[in-house]
Specification:
The chain crosses the membrane at residues 12-32, 38-60, 81-106, 131-152, 201-219, 256-279, 300-318, 324-342. This protein is an all-alpha fold. Helices cover 82% and strands 0% of the residues. The protein is globular, with a radius of gyration of 21 Å.
């Protein structure tokens, strides 16, 4: 047995647990400074804890997809993603991204947006919520392409829902079939909206599709260039870029949804930041333990969860769907996939 399999769960969660202690301590300090009461302090402390749990539940599939990509990357690029990547994920998506939305939507400067977050949280939350439609259309389209890219694969020979996945893989040789499918879904869905909202949805969906295609093209170009210069091997800068955009798409829903629990940007950043550290720990554990190879249907469950998340993001442009339902749905699918994998492993062991 190698070192990776000997490591305990606590070893993998060490930095996540440290970030939890620090984050909740900051939450208590922030609560006391902003309210000056024990009740207010406990309320903010509790909100940060709930946001962390929400982020973890929403990000099970994110960790599995990250591990799926990381297992083919060199150790150097794995380390870079798990260090620099987590900094971008925590500070970029949980702090800079919400500020950037307000900067663009309200046409104000970054400092003004920061002041608004601190002194006018209600107005800040209103602007964020108004920006939900284009964000949901963009992120939903990107994630739908990610999920379909997994199923529309000629070389895919392991099928969880065999009757469906085997037929999908047969059509993978048709050039651009997943692109046509996503565009059709987006255009059909846009008919449920009216006026300016319909135009915003369509344009945002197209930008999401273009972003996915550009990341794929640019990623392949960068990795090819690195191979020719021997600066990196399989899964270099291009894969790193892909994972960062993927993480951003996963984060859209959590960041916007967090404003339903708190309008304080700093409370949201603490709560979601704690959750992001657990995603990093889960990703490392999945890669080092080879969990994806041990449980053959785990990836399938994650990509089905991504596909459902993409559809939910579309429907959230019409009605509010609680993030708890989204998180539990994704976690439930992954749990069923894990159970199916364990059953398959037992059958194989019994047959031998």
């Amino acid at each position: 047995m190698d070192y990776a399999t000997e490591k305990s769960l606590i070893s993998y969660l060490k930095w996540a647990l440290i970030s939890t202690v620090i984050g909740l301590a900051l939450a208590a300090l922030l609560g006391w400074q902003s309210t000056g009461t024990i009740g207010g302090t406990l309320t903010i402390f509790f909100i940060c804890a709930v946001l962390a749990v929400l982020e973890i539940s929403l990000s099970f599939d994110n960790a599995i997809v990250n591990a799926n990509k990381l297992k083919d990357m060199t150790p150097v690029w794995q380390h870079r993603f798990l260090t620099w990547g987590i900094i971008i994920a925590v500070f970029g998506m949980r702090i800079v991204f919400p500020l950037l939305i307000v900067v663009i939507a309200a046409n104000v400067g970054p400092w003004t947006a920061m002041v608004m977050a601190a002194t006018q949280p209600e107005e800040y939350a209103r602007i964020m919520n108004e920006a939900h439609l284009p964000i949901a259309a963009f992120g939903g389209t990107f994630l739908m392409m990610v999920a379909l890219g997994y199923f529309f694969d000629e070389e895919k020979d392991v099928h969880w829902i065999h009757w469906l996945e085997s037929r999908i893989s047969q059509y993978a040789s048709v050039k651009g079939v997943e692109i046509a499918f996503v565009l059709t879904v987006a255009l059909l869905f846009s008919r449920l909206l009216e006026g300016a909202e319909r135009d915003v949805f369509v344009y945002s969906a197209i930008y999401g599709l273009l972003t996915f295609l550009l990341v794929e093209v640019l990623g392949g170009f960068l990795d090819k260039s690195q191979e020719s210069t021997r600066a990196a091997a399989q899964g270099g800068l291009g894969a790193f870029l892909y994972l960062e955009v993927l993480d951003a798409s996963f984060s859209f829903d959590g960041v916007i949804g967090a404003f339903a629990l708190s309008q304080n940007l700093f409370v949201i950043a603490i709560g979601l930041g704690i959750g992001a550290m657990y995603v990093r720990s889960m990703t490392i554990m999945l890669v080092e333990r080879g969990t994806l190879a041990q449980y053959r249907y785990l990836e399938h469950g994650a990509f089905y969860a991504i596909l459902i998340l993409a559809v939910i993001m579309y429907f959230q442009t019409l009605v509010h769907i609680p993030e708890v339902i989204t998180g539990l749905g994704g976690a439930g699918l992954i749990g069923v996939a894990l159970w199916s994998s364990i059953r398959w492993n037992r059958r194989e062991a019994a047959a031998e």
